[in-house]
Design brief:
The protein is an all-alpha fold. The chain contains 6 helices and no strands. Keywords: Coiled coil.
């Protein structure tokens, strides 16, 4: 299960330190590992996906231990984030309740002011002292946040959420693609190194055999 919210800074800092210690590209592998943890549902699925990426630079024994450390650290981060999210939700609810009460007070005061305005207009009209400017000033009512239709606010909020989710999805997909390319490149380099090492051994073996024949 993904961590509540999007604040993964503390976990990313921990992960980057571990990747730096392994001399691994934190930009590529860090983003890919984070995407796996946020998308996969169960710990087994997370571990399988992590093995696929970590096998590029870790042996079997080291990889298993590293996978468990990552998942444990992520689980701990999710728990802390959930507690913080619940506290934030309670604060938001309290603010929303206060705004609603203030909006009700504004509506009530507006009703009273309408009656007062009518009495004033009648009195001023009786003495023929009312002016157009005064009329316009009295009729103007400041627009409050409560006047914004609920469906428009909801649409604005939903649009922002969709944009953020899309950007996060694109970032994870790009990170996955970069990590795969990096993994293939590392694998090719290891094969080249392996072949070069075997070639050196063969040459050394031939030189040794040639020296023995000369004796």
């Amino acid at each position: 299960m993904a961590a509540p919210g999007s604040d993964t800074g503390e976990f990313e800092s921990w992960l980057n330190d571990r990747l730096d210690a392994l001399e691994v590209d934190r930009e590529v592998y860090g983003a890919y590992i984070l995407g796996i943890l946020q998308e996969e549902e169960s710990d087994d699925e997370k571990e399988d996906a992590l093995r696929g990426i970590l096998s590029a630079f870790l042996d079997e024994d080291t990889m298993e231990d590293f996978c468990k450390k990552i998942i444990n650290q992520w689980t701990d981060h999710c728990s802390k984030s959930a507690v913080k999210s619940n506290a934030d939700d309670a604060e938001v609810q309290a603010i929303a309740s206060l705004i609603e009460k203030q909006a009700q007070i504004v509506v009530k005061q507006k009703g009273v002011s309408e009656e007062s305005k009518k009495r004033k207009e009648a009195l001023l009209a009786q003495y023929a002292n009312i002016t157009d400017d005064e009329h316009e000033d009295e009729e103007e009512e400041p627009m409050s946040a409560a006047a914004i239709p609920g469906n428009e606010k909801s649409l604005f909020k939903n649009t922002n959420v969709d944009e953020v989710l899309n950007r996060q999805k694109q970032k994870r997909e790009q990170a996955r693609e970069d990590a795969q390319k990096k993994k293939e490149s590392d694998k090719m380099q290891r094969e080249k190194d392996k072949l070069a090492k075997q070639d050196r051994k063969e040459k050394e073996k031939k030189r040794t055999q040639k020296g023995e024949r000369r004796r």
